[in-house]
Amino acid sequence: MPAMERLKVNAQVRHKSNRSWRDRLFEIIFEADTPAGKWFDIALIVVILLSVLVVMLDSVASVRTGYGRWLYGLEWLFTILFTVEYILRLLCVGKALRYAVSFFGIVDLMAILPTYLSLLVFGSRYLAVVRILRVLRIFRILKLGHHTKEAAVLKSALYASRRKILVFFSVVLTLVVIIGSLMYVIEGTTNSGFTSIPQSVYWAIVTLTTVGYGDISPQTPLGQFLASIVMILGYSIIAVPTGIVTVQWSQASTRQQPNTQACPNCSAEGHDADAKYCKFCGAKL
User: Fold this and answer.
1) For residue 247, is it within any domain?
2) In the predicted model, what is the mean pLDDT of residues 141-147?
3) Are residues 126 and 37 in the same domain?
4) Residue 266: left if φ>0, alpha if ψ -120 to 50, beta else—which one?
5) Domains in the chain: how many in total?
6) Within this chain, do residues 123 and 247 fall inside the same structural domain, yes or no?
7) Same domain for 65 and 134?
8) Fewest Cβ atoms closer than 10 Å to its Cβ: which of 29, 36, 168, 205?
9) What residues make up the domain containing 193?
10) What global pTM score does this model have?
């Protein structure tokens, strides 16, 4: 081995040996570039899927009758494992509070809270299925590049469209209130189910979104005419947010996509491919 290569190898070995336990733990828990980190995250996803399966099976009466105690024990086992993992995440990241209030930090917390709350509120442990959101890490862990890029494009498009979508939903909300009030005035004296303005607004939302449960329907000719207008209007309204997001999606797809490296200080992701420093806290990547 040439002397220069020997020096590089020795420097790498010294660098690894000088790292603190927090650095090594961060690499395993947050990074997917190393074999240890990848296998840790894959094992974590398997445990998450098994825990969700346990919660779903426990909601089936026949299964709960025969295996309720086993399922209950498994649920607490998974909860304890996720609790230890959550604590380790807070310990190894530089800014624990920033991670705790991030998307995945909140999801990680919500994955363990329902089981503990079940000691006070009956049935709340079934909300533990929210931990299925943690499987979203699979796009980063398994390096599904195309899926990671598409998820980043979708996120960017939705963020860029937020003001337009907010204005659109404000208009829709105003529209359903007006339509519901008109329908209450028209059908309020009949036995068609329009007993109040909130009930009529509910009908307007169901009709405008083309869901059409049929639990409430107008009986008078004028009410049916208004309902016909709302039905036709619903088709045109559905296309509006789709067009807004599609335009932003097209623009976002031409931009540079972020990589999957996590910041060792604040655990944030979404950095540019050539980034050397975190764009959120400035720490070196």
Assistant:
1) yes
2) 50
3) yes
4) alpha
5) 2
6) no
7) yes
8) 36
9) 160-252
10) 0.58
Neighbours of 227 (CB within 10 A): 20
- Long-range contacts for 188-196 (Cβ within 8 Å, ≥24 apart)? 190/219, 190/220, 191/219, 192/216, 192/217, 192/218, 192/219, 192/220, 192/223, 193/217, 194/218
Please write the tens of the pLDDT for every residue from 179-225. Answer: 999 999 999 888 888 989 999 999 999 999 888 888 888 999 999 99
Instruction: Provide CB contacts within 8 A for 233, sequence distance 6+.
Output: 208
Radius of gyration (Cα) for the chain, nearest Å? 26
Task: Identify the pLDDT of residue 7.
Answer: 47
pLDDT in tens, 42-64: 888 888 889 889 888 988 889 88
**Within a domain: 244:** yes
Answer yes or no: are the C-beta atoms of 267 and 99 closer than 8 Å.
Answer: yes
How many CB atoms are closer than 10 A to CB 213?
10
On whether residue 274 sits in a domain, the answer given is no
89 and 134 both lie in a single domain = yes
The tokens describing 264, both together, are 């060792």
* 193 located within any domain: yes
Residues 6+ apart with CB under 8 A from 77: none
Domain shared by 12 and 138, yes or no = yes
Q: pLDDT digits over 63-77, tens only? A: 888 888 999 899 899
